[in-house]
Amino acid sequence: MAATAALVSAGLVLAGCGGSSDNNSKASGKSPGEGKAECSQLTQFGDLTGKKVHVYTTIVSPEDQAQKDSYKLFTTCTGATVEYEGSKEMEAQILVRAQSGNLPDIAYLPQPGLLNTLVTQTQTVKEAPKSVSDNVDKWFGADWKKYGSIDGKFYAAPLGANVKSFVWYSPKMFKDNGWTVPQTWDEMLALSDKIAAKGIKPWCAGFESGEATGWPGTDWIEDTLLRTAGADVYDKWITNDVKFNDPQIAEAFDKVGAILKNPKYVNGGIGDVKSIATTAFQQGGLPILQGKCAMHRQASFYAANWPKGTKVAEDGDVFAFYLPPIDPSKGKPVEGGGEFVAAFNDKPVTVAFQTYLSSDVWANEKAKSTPGGGWVSANKGLDPNNLVSPIDKLSAQILADPNAVFRFDASDLMPAEVGANSFWKQMVAWITGQDTKTTLDNIQNSWPKS
Description:
CATH superfamily of the largest domain: Periplasmic binding protein-like II
CATH architecture of the largest domain: 3-Layer(aba) Sandwich
Largest sheet: 6 strands, mixed
Radius of gyration: 22 Å
CATH topology of the largest domain: D-Maltodextrin-Binding Protein, domain 2
Structural class: alpha/beta
Helix content: 25-40%
Low-confidence stretches: 1-23
Mean pLDDT: 91
Number of domains: 2
């Protein structure tokens, strides 16, 4: 990777975490953004022309283009450019690179648990500067700032957000067959039986994602646990106060297994149950377009994976409905996720880019750069009119619903040894035939002892 090699050859020395300051965050010269309202937060950093900031992320093609496009204003305002490195192996490799000192300037961390590991075990993450902290206080809720904080110190601002409680489907396929969107879990299972009786596999899925293979399975479990056991148990599960091998967790696995391990239900257009483990998550829902499966549970960001020209809308080629609750009287459980911006130095260009990403300005630039949909933010400065995709607007509605019981992706909040390791791997073992008890015992045994 050229950007990485350049950083290494330059002999980049990374500071350890500690008190945040802006002492190194000023550059000389007049900012290229002077006099431009949209650059007002960035002119304080002076002229950064010729400087580069290297960002490392899990966001790869095709979603990466919208990210890159959203940085154009940053270049206009500062003169700096962004070196983008996307990798499906980022979650595992960032820890390796932290140990070797071969770190980027900034990384987008998709798990607060991974942030915790980097802060506590490698001491490489810098506390967020005041400009970033002030932006987060202004534009995000307190819970979001808490997700980016460790032991009372704030490190990482939220970036994008997503709603994971979605089931993708073909509106035309449903209409042609007289199927209606289910409002409860039991209705969803009854619909699955009806679809299977027509000789169509009702579900398709894919767990493969490079070194992160298995994470789509953890999302299934988490979303289901919110519906079977509720938010209180979910919260205690994240902290290991409720163990993985607790009967309440086993119940959620059984609910998911009744769908994903049912050969009558899966894996439409792809293969048998075991094929779920080797099907790339980006490919998992595509058989819907050929009428080979009817439903695919996946997050809002999956919108970016439909082929070019696919109309994502309520009257389009594909759309999504909210994964229904088991008991509607207990509220509307919503699982979500997002990324957090961690910095490994406080160079002026790094702090300037952090500041930009934490602002309402970037949130709106990103929305306008994502015409195909699949992106939303919890940034309160985001203008909903800039969310051109119906699925993003639906996500925003779900997040704003007063009946919504929102919880962040549980595996993203667990220690990385579990949430970004054993939980993923054991989901693969489980979907390929391992029994639930062994799976849960194995994950529980991996929980850090201290």
